[in-house]
Write a structure and sequence with these properties.
This protein is mainly beta and 299 residues long. Helix content is 3%, strand content 45%. A hairpin with a 2-residue loop joins strand 11 and strand 12.
C-alpha cells in the first residue's frame, strides 16, 4: 500500500493499492471559459448535467428548475415544481431515473426541523408534469434545536451525491471548517441520517458531483475569504470517500462564491457562482465556468 498516483510528490512505484497518503504540489487553475448568467439566476446554487443540458435553480423563494445551454449558459427552458416550497434549496443530484433536490440549507438559525429532499421523476420532467416524492431527515447528533446566530452551525448542508442506492450528504461546517458525511435512503420517508465519516477539509463545501464510471467524487466550495476550490476524491472504496486519493485544486477566481459543480465524464467540469457584491470594490455577477481537468486526472 502507498501512493499510486504518478502525479503525486510521494508517488511509490511499488505500491499497488492507494492508501490515501498521496501529497500534491499546490495547484491553481483558471477556467477555460466563463459566461455571465441571466440575472434571473443571481442565486444559482447547484448544478447537474442531464439530457445534454445543465440544470440549476435559485436558493430561495423561486420553485423553478432552469435548463441551460452547456456552450454559453443561456436559459433554454424552465419548469415550475408545483406543490413544492423553496425555503433554502441548496443542492441537486441524480441517478438514472430521478433528480434529487435538497431543501436543507440551515445556516440562518441552524435549527430547521423540516429538512427534506424532493425526489423528481425524470420522465415526468420531460413531459412538463413533475411527479415529486419527499425524503425527510434529521441529524441525530444535533441534540439541540435552539437558534444560533447566522452562519454559526455545523449542521448546514449544500452538497449531496447519489451512489449505490443511497444519498450521501456533505455538510457545510461553519464553525469547524470541515465536512461530515451522512447517508440516507433514496426511498420516500422520514429518516435519521447516519453519520459515516468526517474530514477537516479547511473550507465550506457547497456542492458535489459523482462520476460513477471513474469512481470520482468532486466537491466544490470556498474558504472564509471567498477563495474557491475543487476537492477531488478518487480511488474510492465503497463509502470511504476520504480514505483514498484526495487532491485540492485552487480556482483562480477570487471572491467568486462557487455554489455548483457538474460533470459527465470527469475531465470537463462546469462550475457556477452566485452573484456577490461588496461595495464599492467587489461586484461579481453570477457566472457559469467550464474547466478541463484532463491534465490533472488524465493519468
Amino acid at each position: 500500500m502507498g501512493c499510486t498516483n504518478i502525479a503525486a510528490i510521494n508517488y511509490n512505484p511499488l505500491a499497488t493499492i492507494n492508501d490515501g497518503s498521496c501529497i500534491y504540489a499546490d495547484t491553481s487553475i483558471l477556467p477555460d471559459n466563463s459566461f455571465e448568467l441571466n440575472s434571473i439566476l443571481r442565486e444559482t446554487s447547484g448544478l447537474i448535467l442531464w439530457n445534454n443540458r445543465l440544470w440549476t435553480f435559485n436558493d430561495n423563494d423561486d420553485v423553478t428548475l432552469y435548463s441551460l445551454d452547456t456552450i454559453n449558459g443561456e436559459i433554454l427552458d424552465s419548469i415550475e415544481l408545483t406543490g413544492t416550497e423553496n425555503r433554502d434549496w441548496e443542492a441537486i443530484s441524480q441517478d438514472d431515473a430521478f433528480i434529487y433536490l435538497g431543501d436543507f440549507g440551515n445556516n440562518e438559525h441552524g435549527n430547521r426541523s423540516d429538512l427534506k429532499i424532493y425526489k423528481i421523476s425524470k420522465s415526468s420532467l420531460l413531459i412538463g408534469s413533475p411527479e415529486i416524492e419527499i425524503i425527510s431527515f434529521n441529524y441525530p447528533e444535533q441534540t439541540s434545536l435552539e437558534p444560533t446566530s447566522n452562519n454559526q452551525t455545523d449542521y448546514d448542508c449544500e452538497a449531496m451525491i447519489v451512489k449505490d442506492e443511497a444519498i450521501y450528504l456533505f455538510t457545510k461546517q461553519w464553525i469547524s471548517s470541515g465536512t461530515s458525511i451522512y447517508s440516507i435512503p433514496i426511498i420516500a420517508g422520514n429518516y435519521a441520517a447516519e453519520l459515516i465519516g468526517e474530514y477537516p477539509i479547511a473550507g465550506l463545501v457547497t456542492d458535489a458531483t459523482f462520476i460513477p464510471e471513474k469512481s470520482i467524487v468532486m466537491l466544490c466550495g470556498y474558504n472564509t475569504v471567498l477563495q474557491p476550490f475543487i476537492y477531488l476524491l478518487y480511488d474510492i472504496n465503497s463509502d470511504d470517500f476520504f480514505g483514498a486519493n484526495k487532491r485540492r485544486i485552487q480556482l483562480s477566481l477570487p471572491f467568486h462564491q462557487i455554489e455548483g459543480i457538474a460533470s459527465s465524464e470527469g475531465d470537463k467540469i462546469y462550475l457556477s457562482n452566485e452573484r456577490f457584491a461588496h461595495n464599492p470594490l467587489i461586484n461579481i455577477d453570477a457566472k457559469l465556468h467550464a474547466i478541463n481537468l484532463n491534465s490533472i486526472l488524465g493519468n
